[in-house]
Amino acid sequence: MAEFERLVLTGTPRERGIEHGERFAEAVAANVETYRERFAHEGVDVDAMREHAAEYVEYVERESPDYAAEMRGIAEGSGVDLVDVTMLNVRWEVIYPAWKARTEAENEAATAEAEPPVDGCTSFGVMPCATTDGTTYVGQNWDWLAPIADTLFLMELRRDDAPDVLAMTEAGIVGGKVGVNEHGIGIAVNGLISGDDGSEGFRKPYHVRFREVLDAERYDDALRPILETDRVCSANVLVGHADGELIDLEAAPELVNTIYPEEGVLTHSNHFETDAVESVNERRGPSTLYRAERLRRLLAEETDGDGAGADGVDSAAIRDALRDHFGRPASICSHVDESLPEIEHGQTNASLVIDLQERRILGQRGPPCAGEYHEYAL
After folding, report:
1. Which class for 370: exposed (0-12), middle (13-18), buried (19 or more C-beta within 10 A)?
2. How far is CA 244 from the centre of its chain?
3. Type and span of the H or E element at 28
4. Is-contact 129 264, C-beta < 8 A?
5. 109: pLDDT confidence band, cut at 50, 70 and 90?
6. How far apart are CA 122 and CA 139, in angstroms?
């Protein structure tokens, strides 16, 4: 598709939000409409979900005043109602309770057709022992609703009171989903669904947690936002450090399962690998069962099998693996399934390879097979 637009944000949280909102006003409004239409298509009471989001305004202000101020700035700069901007930032936390309310009201059983849509994605991490250049890589293909691709951008935060950050986000969302900070801490995220999602109405939103991960100066503090408090719903968060550490956190509402690299390679997709919780998403998207394992094999082929590089993994090998089309359209490089209604069309909206040692992102907006990666350095 295209390069990412890059926006440098400085000043106070409110000033950063205003700049974000003014630059991407049309994209913020488009995101709101895309989510409203998709959730309505899934049978959710969107007005009730919006009311829940309105209640989250005060909650976010209490949990993270800076995040709330930046969110208010986006609303001010874009002219989009604060409640709708909040809905974007807490969409995971409001969709699952709304979905539970719908299914309980209709007395439906949990079936493949009765699960909410979830961000796709295939993520990875590679340790220095398995790379040709001795660096640590993290990144992913970020798969989601096709129209969202046009609203993605790279935000660069330059701050005196917190680390500088380079991260991909959606227009209107304060917390970066995939990125790196000046201390070499990087993050990639995947959607997950467990049977307990949505049972609790108010807990710290994931996008606030993602920002806190990238606000950390130390690795233990980067893990803390995912671990320290319970969550409304599930998500997978892969956190890496330039010095060669990688940990994958499968987070359910009240449990976190940890996964470590094998032979220097770590991959994840959209199902729980622990049997301690009910993993649901594979009912709706069976490709999750092969995407992560296939990506792991493609990367492991570049090493001699014990974690030490024969030739070793480099960024070019990672990019080639992220372009893999086995199972297309439900492939690592995901494409629109034309058999589905247009409102359900999804694809790889962004592909990112992050060199944590150099604090550098190689990124492509849209399916990675469609063009070349572009370099963005912090």
Report:
1. middle
2. 22
3. helix 25-41
4. yes
5. very low
6. 9
- pLDDT band with cut points at 50, 70 and 90 for residue 112: very low
SS3 135: coil
d(CA 4, CA 223): 28
Does domain 122-377 match CATH 3.20.20.70?
A: no
CB 309 within 8 Å of CB 135: no
DSSP 34-65: HHHHHHHHTT--HHHHHHHHHHHHHHHHHH-H
Residue 51: Cβ-neighbour burial (10 angstroms; 0-12, 13-18, 19+): middle
Q: Which two tokens stand for residue 212?
A: 């806190």
Say how far apart CA 331 and CA 353 lie, in whole Å.
18
Inter-residue contact 354 to 179 (CB < 8 Å): yes
For residues 174 and 147, give the distance between their C-alpha atoms in angstroms, rounded to a whole number.
19
CA distance 53 to 355: 36
Q: Are strands 137-145 and 152-157 parallel, antiparallel or unpaired?
A: unpaired
| Residue 353, beta-bridge partner list | 139, 362
Q: Which residues are 140's β-sheet partners? A: 123, 352
The amino acid sitting at 228 is E
**Edge-to-edge, what's the strand order for the sheet holding 137-145?**
265-268, 122-126, 137-145, 346-355, 360-365, 374-377
Please report how many Cα atoms fall inside a 13 Å half-sphere around the Cα of residue 180, on the Cβ side.
26
Could you tell me the sign of the dihedral formed by the alpha carbons of 196, 47, 342, 374, in that order?
A: negative
365: β partners: 2, 350
Give tens-digit pLDDT for 11-55.
999 999 999 999 999 999 999 999 999 989 888 888 988 999 999
Asked if 70 contacts 176 with a C-beta cutoff of 8 angstroms, the reply is no
Average pLDDT over residues 150-155: 98
**Contact between residue 356 and residue 186 where contact means Cβ atoms under 8 Å apart:** yes
* Of 315, 301, 236, 245, nearest in space to 268 by CA: 236
At 318, list the tokens. 């990672």
Picking from 8, 5, 10, the residue whose alpha carbon sits closest to that of residue 27 is: 5
- Domain ranges in the chain are 6-114, 122-377
